[in-house]
Amino acid sequence: MKKITFIFIIVISLCSQLSSQWIHQLSTNNEFPFVSIKFGNSNTGYLLSSKTTKYDTNSFIYKTTNGGNNWVTLSVPQYMNMFLLGLDFINAYTGYVIGWNYWLSINNHIFKTTDGGVTWSDIEGPQISCYTIHTAIKFFNEQTGYLAGRYGIFGKTTNGGLNWFTFDTVYSDIKDIFFINDNTGFFTCSNSKVYKTTDGGATITFNILSDTTPAHFNYGLNKIKFANSLTGYITSDRINPYQSAIFKTTNGGISWKSILVLPEYWYAKALELTNDSTIYVGLEGGEIIKSTNCGWTWISMILPSTNFGQNFICFLNKNTGFSNVAERLYRTTNSGVFINNISVETPSGFELFQNYPNPFNSTTIIKYNVPKSALITLKIFDILGREIYILVNERQKAGTYEAGYKLFNLSSGIYLYSLYSDGEIKDTKKFIVSK
Known about the structure:
CATH architecture of the largest domain: 7 Propeller
Number of strands: 37
Shape: globular
Largest sheet: 5 strands, antiparallel
Strand content: over 45%
Number of helices: 0
CATH topology of the largest domain: Methylamine Dehydrogenase, Chain H
Helix content: under 10%
Structural class: mainly beta
Number of domains: 2
């Protein structure tokens, strides 16, 4: 397995001047965690919360029409009071919600709206048994959609959900599905296998992740997403009883390799890609790790919650994103970095200060001056000049800024950090990590 540098950067709670850029935005009753979010466009989005027991019949759908600044609760009809498990929206008005109720004669349900959640119709999806549960629904366009669930259920519609036909796949739970185009798609299972189709599901092949062993065969995979037709990522629930990993392909799913094995009990759940090189992974305990170099190195951000259960990360663009920890919804508008504008006075010029303390073994602070509005980038390099990660990459107004970081598992040595303005380097300094 390829070894990579595993770097955590989290907010320093002891530094009162520093503030988290993941802001708590919305909460539900703690028995109804958020389970899914989807935006139909840059302004209109839908958020789903549901209790996770078969005996409860209450769920909630929230809607925003201003990019997530505010959310309102939609009126859910009585026949949708069941365990709602996921949703997908094609645009601002047309979307689908999948639900399950143990006590109904027809357990699995697909609900469709074409008027932005004002009304919903009940579409009967594939039924295998009362124990079959739909777990994922994805539409590629207004006509073509895919459905997956427990015991290998895998269905397809070509008429907007009016009719569904199923494929004979596997006897394992399907956790997630992702289609690159109408015909080429992937789905992850709880048996260490990644399944692929290139003909819209008519034929399906599979790969066992090459870093798994027979002892790990029954440990499952979670989310899957592709940055392009060749490069994709998977989060695993567990690769052994105590650890999980992140896997990557660079050849269109022909083979997969783990790029990061997480510490014990840090289970990888949510997954989001904002471009070809930037990856976000949500961990069970409310942390988000981020890579800006295709998974080579990672930074970490902690969402301010003591609960467990992270189900999604969703970004509208490179800066604005949403995530959850159980029943709490968080939002960032600067890609989740931790930074504080400590002075609005206009400095005389660009200046990068020496980090303090230095040397350090975990916590450090970087301060810099910005004399005029510009695209500011702050990067860290190893001693060979290889970019480890991008700390800051946003337009900032004139002022003095301070960013605090806590680093874990970064080997002792000398590192460089550089300040850029509109792509032009302004200064470079060194810091020393001493373990």
